[in-house]
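Page 47, continued from p. 46.
Same chain as before, 266 aa.
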Amino acid sequence: MNIRNLTITRRTQLGLSLIELMVAMALGLLLMTGVIQVFLSSRQTYAANEAMGRLQENGRFALEFVARSARLAGYTDPVFEGDKPLTLLPEDCSGFAPDVKEDICDDPKHTPGTSTAAFVYQPPITDGLRRDCQGTAVADDTLIISQYLISAGALSCRSYNLKTLAWISGPDAQELISGVDSLQALYGINTSGDSRSANQYVSADRVTNWNNVRAVRIAVLANSVEPLTPAPAQRNFVLLDAAPISFADNRARQIFSTTIQLKNTF
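Result:
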C-alpha cells in the first residue's frame, strides 16, 4: 500500500468543514425551536388547567359557605327560650332597631353593585361549641346574624350578636374565599297561596314581607385569580337579575349558582 495515499485519506476524515458545521447548527436550532414550542405549549396548558381548577374551587367553596348559613336560617334549639328569629335579614335592615340597622347595613367596604346575604339563627353545636361564620365560638343562648358580602375581590363574612348588639369579631368582614367578583341573591316567595313553596324569585327591594320568603337563590361570579396567557375572550356576565358586567384583566371567570329552601320558616 502507498504510504502517501494512506496519509492523505486519514487527513480527509479529520474535522468538519464550515458548511457542514453551519448545516448541523441550523438543524440543531430547528430541533431546539420545536422543543421550546412544545415546552411553552405544555406550560400554558398547565397554567390554564391550574387556573380553571382554582376558579372551580373558588366558586364551589363560596357557594358552600353561603348555603351552609342559609340552611340554618331561622334555626333554634328546641329548648331555646325566646322569640323565634327572623329567617333572613332584609338588605335594608327594615324591622331592626336604628343602632342595629346602622351597624349592619352601612359597610363602606362592601363592593357597590353586589348583594349582601344575611341569615339569622342560633349556631348549632358541631365540635362541642357553637361557632359563627368566621369560626368564632359564641354562647349557647345567642342568636347571630351571619352576613356575607363582597369586599376587595373576595367573599367575606361577619357575624352580629343579637343579644349583646355588637359584632362578634369586630365590624370588619373576614375574607373567606378570594377570587370572587360578585354575589347576587334572589328571594323565593309564593303568589299562589301555598305558604310552603316558592313560585317566584324576586330581588330584595321587591320583597314586601320577609316572613313569607321560602327560598333563596344565590349566584357568585368567581375568577381564576391569576391572568391567563393567551387571554380568554372578553364577554359579559349576568348574575340572576343584575346588570351585565365585564372585565379586561385576562382572568377566566364562571358563574356558580344554587337554590336553598328555607326549612325553618314554618
